[in-house]
TrEMBL record:
This is ABC transmembrane type-1 domain-containing protein. InterPro entries: MetI-like, MetI-like_sf, Phosphate_PstA. Keywords: Cell membrane, Coiled coil, Membrane, Transmembrane, Transmembrane helix, Transport. It is a multi-pass membrane protein. GO terms for biological process: phosphate ion transmembrane transport. Its main location: membrane.
C-alpha cells in the first residue's frame, strides 16, 4: 500500500472502526469466558463424582486406605515438594499432588487432604461405596453394612440398600413435618403471645387499671395460645421419637464401623454404581436443592433460597421507590424549573452523586434512615416494644431506600435525556389543541419518554443488585431465620433483616471456616447472582422495547 493510499485510509477513520470492533469482540470473549469459568467451577460441584479407594504409602506413617472424591490435581516443583518432606527421584523436576475430599470430618478432623502421587498405590472404584450428605459435619464416605431400628439390626447384605431408601424417605418426611410445626405453627403462636405482651405493655403505658376487662381478655387469649402450644409440643415429642428410631452402620476407611442416626442424614447415594442417566437426574435434583433450600453448616452446605429471595425482593422494592422520585425530579428540572445557574449546579451535583462511593450511602442510610427516621417511628408508633427496636434497626425497607438513593441519579439523568429528545413541536401542537401543560406532559411527553425511563431503571437495577458494602450497614445479615414475607399478618415485614447473594458470596468466600468446601459454592452463588441480574435486566429491556414500539405506533 502506497503512502498516499495509507494516509487516505487512515484519515477516513476506518482504523478506528476496526479498533473499536476488535475491542468489543475481545470484551465479549472475556465476559463469556468469565461466565463459563464461573459456571464450570460452580455448577460442576453438584455432579455426583465417583468415590475412590486408594492405598497410600506415606513414609512417615503406616500404609493406609483412603476413601475420597478427587477434587483437583496440580503440578508442583521439586523444591516445593521438598518443603513438605517429599523427595522426587533424581532428575525429576516436577511432581503431582492431588486434593481429595475424604469427608468424615467428625472422625478425621479435616474433610480435605492433599496427597502426593509418588506415594499413591492401588486405586479402585468399588460400586458399594456410598456418599452420605448430612445435616451436620459435611459428607460421610464408607461402606453401608447394616440398618438398625431402635438399636436392633433389621437388614444386612443385599437387603440393606432397599431398607435404607425406604427409611430415609420416611425420615426426611418426618423432618419436614417437624420443620413445618416449629417454623410456622409454633412461630404463629409465639407471634400471638408477643402481640399480647405488647398489648399489655401498651395498656400499662395508657394507664389502664390492672384487673380490668382488657387485662382479663389478654389473659384468656394467652391461655388459649398456651393450650395450643402444649398440644404442638406433645405432637413434636411424638415426631422426634419416631424420627430417632432408625440408624445405619457404616464402615469407614480405617476399618471402624460407626453408627449414624438417619435423623441427621439428608441423602445417600452410590455414585460408582450410577449410569449417566442416573447421574444427570441426581445432578438436576442437587441443583434444585441448592436453589430452593436453606443454608446449613455456616453457609457451606445446603441451599441459598433466602439469599435469592432477599436479593430479588430488595431490588423490586428499590425499583418501586426510585422510579417515581427519579422521574419527578427529572420532569421538574427539564420542564418546570427556570434554567439558570442554580439548576446547572443541581445537575452537576446529581452527576457527582453517581460517583460517590457506595459505602458513603451506607453510612448515610444507617444514620438518617435507621437511627433518625426509624428511631422516631419507634418512639411514635411502637412505644410498647421499646427499648427493642422495630424500625430503628437495619432492615429490608432501609436497605431498599439506601439503594434507591444510590441509584436515583442514574434515573434522573436517563429521564432528562429522554425528555430532551422529545421535539418541541409536539409540545406546541398539544398546547395549540387546547391541552394544558400538565395534560401535555402526562398524556404526550411522558409516554414518549417511557423507554428512556426504563433505560435508567435497567442501569439502576444492574448496579443495585450487585451492591454489598452499603447493605452490610442497613439490613443484610449472614443468616436470616425468617423471610420478609410469611403467613403472619401483615404478611410483608419490611422491618426484618434479610440475606443477599452478594453478601453471601463475601461471607462464604472470606469468613468460612472450611475454605475448600466453600470454594465451589462461591462460584455457584456468583453465577446465580449474574443470572438473576441478567434476568431482571432482560425483563426490563423487554418492557422498554414494548413501550418503544407503542410510542412509534402512536407517532404514526
Amino acid at each position: 500500500m502506497s503512502n498516499k493510499s495509507f494516509s487516505s485510509w487512515y484519515k477516513s477513520g476506518s482504523p478506528w472502526v476496526w479498533l473499536n470492533a476488535g475491542a468489543v469482540s475481545v470484551s465479549l470473549v472475556m465476559v463469556v469466558g468469565l461466565l463459563l469459568l464461573i459456571a464450570v467451577r460452580g455448577l460442576g460441584h453438584f455432579w455426583p463424582a465417583d468415590i475412590m479407594s486408594i492405598t497410600y504409602h506415606d513414609p512417615d506413617k503406616k500404609p493406609m486406605t483412603l476413601i475420597a472424591e478427587a477434587v483437583e490435581t496440580e503440578v508442583v516443583t521439586a523444591a516445593r515438594l521438598q518443603k513438605v518432606g517429599v523427595h522426587l527421584p533424581e532428575g525429576q523436576k516436577t511432581g503431582e499432588r492431588h486434593l481429595l475430599k475424604v469427608g468424615n470430618r467428625d472422625y478425621f478432623g479435616l474433610d480435605f487432604l492433599w496427597i502426593n502421587q509418588l506415594w499413591v498405590g492401588e486405586t479402585s472404584y468399588p460400586k458399594d461405596l456410598i456418599a452420605i450428605e448430612r445435616r451436620e459435619w459435611g459428607n460421610f464416605y464408607g461402606y453401608l453394612t447394616a440398618v438398625k431400628q431402635q438399636g436392633k439390626v433389621i437388614a444386612t447384605g443385599d437387603k440393606v440398600w432397599n431398607q435404607l431408601q425406604v427409611r430415609l424417605k420416611r425420615s426426611n418426611s418426618l423432618v419436614a413435618k417437624i420443620k413445618e410445626i416449629e417454623k410456622n405453627e409454633i412461630g404463629k403462636i409465639n407471634h400471638g403471645l408477643e402481640e399480647l405482651r405488647l398489648q399489655k405493655r401498651q395498656d400499662e403505658l395508657d394507664g389502664v387499671a390492672e384487673g380490668s376487662l382488657a387485662y382479663q381478655q389478654i389473659e384468656e387469649e394467652r391461655k388459649q395460645w398456651n393450650v395450643q402450644y402444649q398440644g404442638l409440643q406433645k405432637q413434636l415429642a411424638d415426631l422426634y421419637a419416631e424420627l430417632n428410631r432408625d440408624q445405619i452402620m457404616v464402615k469407614i476407611s480405617d476399618g471402624r464401623e460407626v453408627e449414624l442416626p438417619l435423623a441427621k442424614v439428608v441423602d445417600v447415594y452410590r455414585p460408582n454404581a450410577m449410569n449417566v442417566g442416573q447421574k444427570l437426574a441426581f445432578y438436576f435434583e442437587a441443583v434444585w436443592k441448592f436453589v430452593s433450600g436453606e443454608p446449613r453448616e455456616a453457609n457451606t452446605e445446603g441451599g441459598i433460597f433466602p439469599a435469592i429471595f432477599g436479593t430479588v425482593m430488595m431490588v423490586m422494592i428499590m425499583a418501586i421507590l426510585v422510579t417515581p422520585f427519579g422521574v419527578i425530579a427529572a420532569v421538574y428540572l427539564r420542564e418546570y424549573a427556570t434554567q439558570g445557574p442554580m439548576i446547572r449546579l443541581i445537575r452537576i451535583a446529581v452527576n457527582n452523586l453517581a460517583g460517590v462511593p457506595s459505602i458513603v450511602y451506607g453510612v448515610f442510610g444507617l444514620g438518617f434512615f435507621v437511627y433518625f427516621l426509624g428511631g422516631n417511628i419507634d418512639e411514635i408508633f411502637f412505644q410498647a416494644k421499646l427499648p427493642s427496636p422495630t424500625f430503628g434497626a437495619p432492615g429490608m425497607l432501609w436497605a431498599s431506600l439506601t439503594l434507591a438513593l444510590l441509584t436515583v441519579p442514574v434515573v434522573i439523568v436517563a429521564t432528562e435525556e429522554g425528555l430532551s429528545r422529545i421535539p418541541r413541536a409536539i409540545r406546541e401542537g398539544s398546547l395549540a389543541l387546547g391541552a394544558t401543560k400538565a395534560e401535555t406532559l402526562w398524556r404526550t411527553v411522558l409516554p414518549m419518554t417511557a423507554p428512556a425511563m426504563m433505560t435508567g431503571l435497567i442501569l439502576a437495577v444492574a448496579r443495585a443488585a450487585g451492591e454489598v458494602a452499603p447493605l452490610m450497614m442497613v439490613g443484610v445479615v449472614k443468616l436470616a431465620p425468617t423471610l420478609a414475607v410469611d403467613n403472619i399478618a401483615p404478611y410483608l415485614h419490611l422491618d426484618r433483616q434479610f440475606m443477599h447473594l452478594g453478601f453471601h458470596i463475601y461471607d462464604v468466600g472470606f469468613q468460612s471456616p472450611n475454605v475448600e468446601a466453600a470454594r465451589p459454592l462461591v462460584y455457584a452463588t456468583a453465577f446465580l447472582l449474574v443470572m438473576i441480574i441478567i434476568i431482571l435486566n432482560m425483563s426490563a429491556i423487554s418492557i422498554r422495547n414494548r413501550l418503544r414500539e407503542t410510542s412509534k405506533a402512536s407517532e404514526n
